[in-house]
Amino acid sequence: MKKIVLIISFSIFIFSCSYGQNISNPEYKIDAGLIEKIKEQASSTNGVSMGKMEVKVFENDTLIVNTYDIEKIEFFTMSNLENDTIRITGYTSKLIGFGFYLDITIDSYDLTFLAKSDMPIYKYNKQDTTLLFGLSVPCYRTSLTLTAKPIFKNGETITGFLELKSNDFWGESKGESKKYKIELRAYFMTEKLKSE
């Protein structure tokens, strides 16, 4: 009887620890039918890859920028192949310097939001005292759909669609700290992958 009570108590503890946290699914999806939509939004020519993204910016929990379904923002895509990992960075500086870091492995991915500035203004937490030029902000929700399963070889092109919702992070200007979070969705196409 004590064993049963212990197992039930442990199960409740594990459930309560994870409840309310969005644990992202690290597996990506494959949808070959997405290729035409991506070709309308993204391109790769002469080694330069461009994609399009939409973004929502929240400042102190208030939506201050929303380009969803209104305007798509062009961004550059940089990519390379490192052993069994495809590393993709998408970046634009149209509104502020922002984008994403995406690492793809054989059966999973890691996606974070990229915040970048010419001056050290960012920090991960409000109480942090060191300001940074850029952050790789973890996300509490992500999704990634590729048009084909990667083969991890030089010359391969990766095309897909991603979505993210970032954790909170902080920006400081004139001694005032403000809390930010980002929602972003992007269509991307890489140039031909090369090993670094």
Specify the helix fraction band: 10-25%
Q: Which residues form runs of ≥5 with pLDDT under 50?
A: 1-25
Instruction: Classify the beta-strand content into a percent band.
Output: over 45%
Number of helices: 2
Shape: globular
- Counted beta strands: 14
Mean pLDDT: 86
Helix and strand element order: HEHEEEEEEEEEEEEE
Task: Kindly report how far apart the N and C termini lie.
Answer: 58 Å
Class from secondary-structure proportions: mainly beta
Radius of gyration: 19 Å
Structure characterization notes:
The protein is mainly β. It is built from two helices and 14 strands; from the N terminus they run αβαβββββββββββββ. Strands 1, 2, 3, 4, 5, 6, 7, 8, 9, 10, 11, 12, 13 and 14 form a 14-stranded mixed beta sheet that branches. A hairpin with a 2-residue loop joins β2 and β3 (48-59). The longest helix is centred in the first third of the chain and has 17 residues, at 2-18.
Characteristic terms for this protein:
single chain; disordered N terminus; mainly beta; 14-stranded mixed sheet; 196 residues
Task: Compose a concise summary of this entry.
With 196 residues, the protein is mainly beta. It has helices at 2-18, 35-41; strands spanning 29-30, 43-45, 48-59, 62-66, 73-82, 85-92, 97-104, 109-116, 122-123, 134-137, 139-146, 159-166, 169-173, 176-189. β7 (97-104) and β8 form a beta hairpin.
